[in-house]
Amino acid sequence: MLEILPREKSETAHQYAFRVLRYNILHLNLAPGQLISESEIGEQLNMSRTPIREAFKDLEKAHIVQIEPQRGTFVSEIDNNLVSDACFLRLTIERAVMSIACKGISADYISQLDENLFLSSYYISRGDVDKWFLQDDAFHRLIFRACGKEQIYNLFDDIMLHFNRVRIMNLKEVNMALAHKEHIELLDAIKRCDEKQALEVLERHLTYCVTHCN
């Protein structure tokens, strides 16, 4: 079922439709292979079909949906090659950022990361995968921001959707506690400036879904 997000004041209908569809595809409310209808989405979002059609085209460019003439628009199936490529990109870049983080980040960012882990633990206790995943994303983004590299994190946003769909599948099927434990280990390594340990945990943390998605 489509989750309707609050619309931001500055958003055009096209931007809002794109954001809602992308969110729902990422969080598997729109499942891989599912047929999605312009008219049905437009009715749920209370807008005409034109901005929905434009959003579909943008999603297709990111390989998130497939538009098939005479058949309709479908949510893309999981592409293991894209998942593997996304993991390679993320791991290559995040290893470099983690090395910077282990040279020391400010106490304010350490405090924000501690708070993130506290909230993550709360969502685990409630079994709320979607909210936990938002904290997971925020945890990694905070590390990039602490190192002055947040714009790089933004750059690989689209390709990471393919990787993150598999991560969310694994979180639903396995246990959020394992990923949370690795976050605790990562932050501990950053606090101790232990680059070797941080890189070992990071590789295990990011490659788990790739080795379990086939």
Automatic annotation (TrEMBL):
This is HTH gntR-type domain-containing protein. PANTHER family: HTH-TYPE TRANSCRIPTIONAL REGULATOR LGOR-RELATED, TRANSCRIPTIONAL REGULATOR, GNTR FAMILY. The lineage of its organism: Bacteria, Bacillati, Bacillota, Clostridia, Lachnospirales. SMART domains: FCD, HTH_GNTR. It comes from Hungatella hathewayi WAL-18680. GO terms for molecular function: DNA binding; DNA-binding transcription factor activity. Keywords: DNA-binding, Transcription, Transcription regulation. It comes from the Bacteria. Pfam families: FCD, GntR. InterPro entries: GntR_C (IPR011711), TF_FadR/GntR_C (IPR008920), Tscrpt_reg_HTH_GntR (IPR000524), WH-like_DNA-bd_sf (IPR036388), WH_DNA-bd_sf (IPR036390). Residues 11-78 form the HTH gntR-type domain. SUPFAM superfamilies: GntR ligand-binding domain-like, Winged helix' DNA-binding domain.
